[in-house]
Amino acid sequence: MNITKQNLEKAVNENIISSEQSTKLLEFLNKHPSTAAKFDFTHVLYYIGGMIAIGAMTLFMTLGWESFGGTGIVFISLLYGAAGLKLTNIFKSKGLAIPAGICGTFVIALTPLAVYGLQHALGVWPDDSVYREYHRYIQWHWLYMELSTLAVGVIIAWKYKYPFLIMPIAVTLWYLTMDIVVMINGGDYSWELRKLVSLYAGLLMIALAFWVDIRSHNKADYSFWLYLFGVISFWGGMSLQHSDSELSKFIYFTINLVMIFIGVLIVRRIFVIFGAIGCSGYIGYLASHIFKDSWLFPITLTLLGLFVIYLGVAWQKNELYITAKARKYLPTPLRELLESKHG
User: Fold this and answer.
1) Residues near 176 by Cβ (< 8 Å), separated by ≥ 6?
2) What residue segments make up the domains of the chain, in order of their start?
3) Which of 23, 225, 287, 310 is the most exposed place for a label (fewest CB within 10 A)?
4) pTM, to two decimals
């Protein structure tokens, strides 16, 4: 919860704390700012600046860098990396966790460029592809860059323990799964294969995120980026599947409902957002194709919506009793995770 001056004034008015305590608490909070990301102007500036710097060395890399040659690219990458680590340590010493995490992420994002340059310098680069294609195309020989990025990412995340450091690790895991499957499959780049890889890789990443969530829920939110890319990958791969079967479409709708339930259960909005999009898409399909001439369909949907609202009211009245009963049957790690989310 974001504690504001207005919150403290209300607490004073309710005689919960004294005016003197309110003043001292506000001074303490101002001296020790929260390390959690939040939507204010300072943090927006942090992330805009960080993403510009990271994007410059990844997505927006120009062909002009090829003129430096492999050795030059390695040297510049190491120079940038050293500067990034220096800034990470400076911000960490000042208690500025957000910019420290962003600078550490910048260092991880430099790793594939450095490995690309090293492979060119050693004369082992296998074809005419260039670094800027790394974030756009699937190639088997990106594997060295991806494995190196994972190694550096794990080391830096272990040393500094900032949640944002998991972001490039999650992206690299996503890239890695696609490239490995293409390599194993003999260079098959078919669209059908990509959709299936995306779906199953997303499931694996969600499972990894859940494991990380259970292990670290009382420390920091290290699983956020894994959940984000896992859900996007899984839901995207699933939604792009084509089927003429009404049963398959209904199963798709059911999976999206389950995603909403899971999102509410573990307090992860990304599940709820994509689950709601999927459910809306299925209902739109029913309205425009199956029941397009039916006057009863809108009435049925209205009644269904009212019934869902009724379920919400009933749940609110009995939530504590139901959750207390249900949690008794859950494994201890999962029960602790849910209690940390809901109390």
Assistant:
1) 143, 146, 147, 150
2) 39-168
3) 310
4) 0.76
